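Field notebook, page 548. I keep forgetting to write these up properly, so this time I am using the form the group agreed on. The chain and the ligand, 3-acetylpyridine adenine dinucleotide, are recorded exactly as supplied. Prediction of the bound pose follows.
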Amino acid sequence: MSAQPGPGATLSSSDPTAAEAFDMVIVGAGFAGLYMLHKARQLGLRARVFEAGDGVGGTWYWNRYPGARCDIESMEYSYQFSDELQQQWHWTERFAPQPEILKYANHVADRFDLRRDIRFGTRVVAASYDESAARWTVRTERGEVATGQFVIMATGCLSSTNMPPFQGLGSFKGATYHTGEWPHEPVDFTGQRVGVIGTGSSAIQSIPIIAQQAKSLVVFQRTANYSVPAHNAALDPAYETRIKAEYAAFRARNSLMPAGFGSNYPRNEVSVFSATPEERRQAFDARWQRGGLGFNGAFNDLMIDKAANEFAVQYVHERIREVVKDPAVAALLSPKQVLGCKRICVDTGYYETFNQPHVKLVDISQGGIEAITPAGVDAAGQSFEFDSIVFATGFDAMTGTLMKMDIRGRNGLTLREAWSAGPRTYLGLNVAGFPNLFTISGPGSPSVLTNMIVSIEQHVNWIADCVAWLRAQGRRSIEARPQAQDEWVGHVNGVANGTLYPTCNSWYLGANVPGKTRVFMPLLGFPPYVERCNEVVAKGYEGFAVGA
Ligand code: N01
């Protein structure tokens, strides 16, 4: 394999717009981009990573809001490709906080000497395919140009923040923050009047901490969300030792779980209807006391039958009423939608926060935010004055970052055109008309419905094997066949439609971004997905057209 600049390469460093040639250009230096670079090097490929941020870590680089923490347990939310790495790294808490995950990403970058092939502070704005050369040309905001036989979009699923076009946005005289683009220097709300817009995971993690600092806090809630206590704690050393003694087997068991994690607390394969009221209570209590995302695995039909789900809904409503002293506030905090159709949140002291006299919940489910004003926020027929406003309004998930780039495949087809009616991929890995361009954890793959690092590693391994195969066969391109892609999109929707997931306005559907096409983007079920990916390979890359 080529380890030298290919045709069109220039050795001149004086002209930043002259194209530099690579085998593989990788966009993003989060967990996907870092591992892709490592694998590319193992294949002997000349690879370049472009990263918009000034450091590695992707979502964990940007999301530095107070309380940011992973909701997958730390012994599971880490790479498994290097046993030395997983043995030597020590997590301090059951659920790792953002600074520790960022430290881990930096450790990986140093340990595998990855930085020398990463251009930081460099946002990719365009990528276009030249069919005659079977190569991509990638352009950055700074005017740099790189070519590559392969382009890997390691751009993350939650990397484009969603800032709704509120009337008067920009007129506010105080400080504004978005949870997904938090400043690097500490933000201190001590003595301030703070408003938080949004009640998703980011808000639910940050609100208890902001409330500790602020003089007053107003939370604007459009939709109440389900949150399960984290019961976070220092990582139990005995548990760590036990896992490390059989890490590979633990990872293997997790890979057979529907979401690629949680083999220690698998779904209870019993229908809620077959349980007595006492058994139901015990099952929900056990999950609630354990804490974390495993809650909706208390029974096997919670996500497929609305009447079954209602038992879980009522259970959580009861827990909220137990904690929140004002019955009217408890009622407002009690979600109405199916439990789990929006991603469940995991919190530390969220509901308790609303018992504090300086914290106020404002229901904006009817009129929304009326305006951002120079003094604060107009909503629910009132004017609120703030020193700071925190926008916890989420992301243009899964497609936002890809759609912002000008990506042009064969015959100038743009990704925006190809996805005008919603994202269409084959296996979430490739798009018909865009040869040799791979998406890591793209729409149509299990991605956000799994432990992301597990999905990332599976995708990177698949892509690396595919590239090695193409080169070994002397083939220069690979591209999804339209029919295979159509069938795949139908499959992804069919699986989702057999569940309750598409029943509410979630970001899985793109429903949180005004004007975005509503399509259920991730695929449910990690193990059958992996099986299908392996089968495609075993059948000679079935569903792909391989160029000579
Ligand atoms: O974003 P969200 P997030 N007017 O989209 C509201 C991951 N994550 O950043 O529900 C008023 O969930 C919106 O209201 P509604 C995790 O996968 C993980 O919190 O659309 N409000 C909602 O309340 C998570 O699911 C971790 O009615 C508006 C909120 O803003 C994903 O990231 C931690 C509005 C956005 O909630 C996204 O979470 C954090 C408007 N115009 C995040 N527009 C962990 O690992 C939106 N909202 C623990």
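OBSERVATIONS:
- The longest strand covers residues 145-153.
- The two ends are 17 Å apart (CA to CA).
FOLLOW-UP: compare against the apo run.
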